[in-house]
Design brief:
alpha+beta, six-stranded antiparallel sheet, four-stranded antiparallel sheet, 3 helices, 12 strands, about 20% helix
């Protein structure tokens, strides 16, 4: 089966690490709207920080390379042809510890807002000369997705206090004026597909 062209996908690339993601929304007869994901991570490259998705399940199948992962404290090594599942609410992260590029395909079920969240994350990382997301836009992104997505450092209890304070301060300082700031809600429209996005 031919791979659909990029104009049918949301394409994200981390300019610092070379990580690439392609996402699109599709209707599944059993699961409803799901997010299809194709990814590529260069050799010996970190993935996302430890995080949780509260409402969605991620299924990932390795195509080439080896996916190293941590799932609720357990270390995993997923080889080509193998699939792993990150259940809703699980604490997980993944990376490429090998010397070969990692390629994978997966789905987020249901799609939820994962595509819009990741679009914001990549925008923040790419806006920074160091790869460290700018503070005020990051606080805004984490706060508006707090019911569905979470990074686990700093602790959630501390985030619950700090994030609204930072968003309030950022608003007072004019950090969120217009729509040109990194990861603004209007710039994170998500993946094309079933919902008619794009």
């Amino acid at each position: 089966m031919a791979t659909p062209p990029d104009n049918h996908w949301l394409v994200l690339e981390n300019r610092h690490t070379g990580e690439k993601l392609r996402m699109r929304r599709v209707n599944d007869p059993e699961s409803g709207e799901v997010l299809e994901v194709e990814g590529h991570l260069p050799a010996a490259t970190e993935g996302p920080p430890l995080h949780r998705h509260f409402r969605l399940r991620e299924e990932t199948t390795v195509l080439t390379g080896e996916l190293s992962a941590q799932l609720d404290g357990k270390m995993l090594a997923i080889k080509p042809g193998e699939t792993t599942v990150f259940p809703p609410g699980s604490r997980h992260t993944w990376w490429n510890a090998g010397d070969e590029a990692l390629a994978f395909r997966g789905r987020a079920i249901p799609a939820g807002d994962l595509d819009r969240y990741l679009q914001g994350v990549f925008a923040l990382v790419n806006a920074s000369p160091t790869g460290r997301p700018p503070l005020f836009p990051l606080a805004h992104l984490l706060w508006r997705h707090r019911r569905t997505q979470a990074v686990l450092s700093p602790p959630r209890a501390l985030q619950a206090v700090l994030l609204p304070l930072l968003v309030g301060l950022g608003s007072l300082l004019g950090k969120y004026n217009g729509s040109e700031w990194p990861a603004s809600p209007s710039s994170c429209r998500g993946a094309p597909g079933a919902s008619g996005n794009h």
